[in-house]
Amino acid sequence: MRNKQPRSKTVRRLFKMLFEFYPVMLPVTIFCIIFSAVVSSVPAVFMQNVISVVETSWKSGDWDGVSGKILGMVGILVVFYVLSLISAFSFNQLMAIITQGTLKKLREKMFGGMQRLPIRYFDTHNHGDIMSHYTNDIDALRQMISQSFPQLLISGVTVLTVFAIMLYYSFWLTLVVVIGVVLMALITKKVGGGSAGYFFRQQTALGKVEGFAEEMMNGQKVIKVFCHEEESKAAFDKLNDELFHTSQRAHRYANILGPILNNIGNVLYVLVALTGGALLLSGATNVSISGIAMSISIVVPFLNMTKQFVGNINQVSMQVNAVVMGLAGSERIFNMMDEEPEQDNGYVSLVNAKYEGDELVETPERTGIWAWKHPHRADGTVTYTRLTGDVRLYNIDFEYVPGKPVLHDVSLYAKPGQKVAFVGATGAGKTTITNLLNRFYDIADGKIRYDGINIGKIRKSDLRHAIGMVLQDTNLFTGTVMENIRYGNLEATDDECIAAAKLAGADDFIERLPEGYQTQLTGNGANLSQGQRQLLSIARAAVADPPVMILDEATSSIDTRTEAIVQQGMDALMYGRTVFVIAHRLSTVKNSNVILVLDHGRVIERGTHEELLEQKGQYYQLHTGAFELE
């Protein structure tokens, strides 16, 4: 994850994003909030005018027209309140649209950006923590946008409006309030600043807890089999304690603000009353913008304005938790969005082609013939090379972590239609080679050529379209069996999907499902056996019909009987294709054109099954049982 950004930068970025999403609606909403806040200060002026009218009439003894004046002021006040009600209703409705719309668009940006991230990101980040961005961080942001920001704006405008009115009526009383508010602001800054770091740690710790819980749910069978319940609970308790302590510290700092500010507000109310009373008794002329002499019509509304002023300061402090938590969530979301996307400098694309005489040309129709469209930057010409599946590796070096090489000087070639098998212990580098063929990772040194073209020049999407892959770990998605098979080729017809299932040997068990090919799958195909899920994965690769196929332990999860059933289909699937096979079962690699034995990232033996047996090296020991793969 990237380093933490300054909170001010996060706030600016967030508001910039809001204005980009709603360039008209957001300013209208802000206007409605400001208008509603300003109108909420009107009662103070109304009260001062009413008391002033009554006080003047009482002193003069003339009560004529007093009721009319008061009713006129009440009428004006009612109009203001109606406008305030309309304004409040409007901004609440608009904020609901802005909040949910922003979250929707942000989730789309996050998910779209996630699809462009390299495999390395998902290999190095906990999946539960990534999920936490879509749940906890988004929810913290929702609360901040929908509640905290409007409340902060309302309180801020109200404070400024009330302050202006207070200053207009009495400079000395306003000075008393300002001194108290400065003290409140210093305390808020001190406490709020102390909690901000803990709120960021809380969101991070929450992501860890969710990631661990997800991992444990996926591995419940393993936990039960090895009686690992207590150890799992201890590991969870450790992460949960970390979350508890960071949350406790964050909220402890923030929650003490309310009581402190409330008590300062009460003391301030008393001080204003005492100061006002002293000014009244002294008969001092009020030093203020208005120049009005101190009177009861000033002191009484001023006390109410002091409550309103302090109350809104308290409202700001009450939002500290939500704001800091929302900013922490925003920061984590922006960090994810700022991750470097997968780089692709390729410019060679895969196109439909046909022959016009001996020349290969591009065509919009689907012909069953694919070609690499290679624009040459030097002279602007374009050449077409038929896709055949000729793959060659030259002196490949690779390391996942700098300074820790995984592959050393690996070279191999696979001609169209050949079957190449990788054999070796876990960690020997077998799967790493297939990751490089798909450009999930880019090589540090050496070259990989596909049909004579450096794969670094081929667009990654086109390269992967030309390579099918059946992984050891199956991944099925929520949807029907038919939809999961069609995942390999979204343009495939139902008949083509059924043909692929028959080729893989999956048709028999699919027909026995409650709704056949329309049976709904959920939870990664939890209602299917591991072998059945693997057969669907093979069928999905078959419907893609690529010229190169990678089978990474493709039959490792299939029992011996099922393997015998599917072997014929696998042979049909591999026929005419360039195939790379990774397998622990030597029975699946005997008929390979070439077998490569890897050890610690180096090719130590190569040849056919018979040639390797004659060498009596490590492969011979594997075959005779003198050596076992780990």
Number of DSSP strands? 16
Enumerate how many helices there are, as a single number.
21
Shape: elongated
> Cα distance, first to last residue?
34 Å
Largest sheet: 6 strands, mixed
Helix amount: 55-70%
Structural class call reads alpha/beta
Taking Cα atoms only, what radius of gyration do you get, to the nearest Å? 36 Å
Side-by-side strand order of the widest sheet? 10-13-14-7-15-16
- Which whole number gives the mean pLDDT? 81
Task: List low-pLDDT spans.
Answer: none
Beta-strand content bin: 5-15%
GO molecular function: ABC-type oligopeptide transporter activity; ATP binding; ATP hydrolysis activity
Organism: Candidatus Fimenecus excrementigallinarum
Keywords: ATP-binding, Membrane, Nucleotide-binding, Transmembrane, Transmembrane helix, Transport
Pfam families: ABC_membrane, ABC_tran
Please name the defining characteristics of this protein.
630 residues, single chain, 6-stranded mixed β-sheet, 4-stranded antiparallel β-sheet, alpha/beta, 60% helix, elongated
General description of the model:
By secondary structure, the chain is an alpha/beta fold. It is built from 21 helices and 16 strands. Helices cover 60% and strands 14% of the residues. The radius of gyration is 36 Å and the shape is elongated. The model has no long low-confidence stretch (mean pLDDT 81).
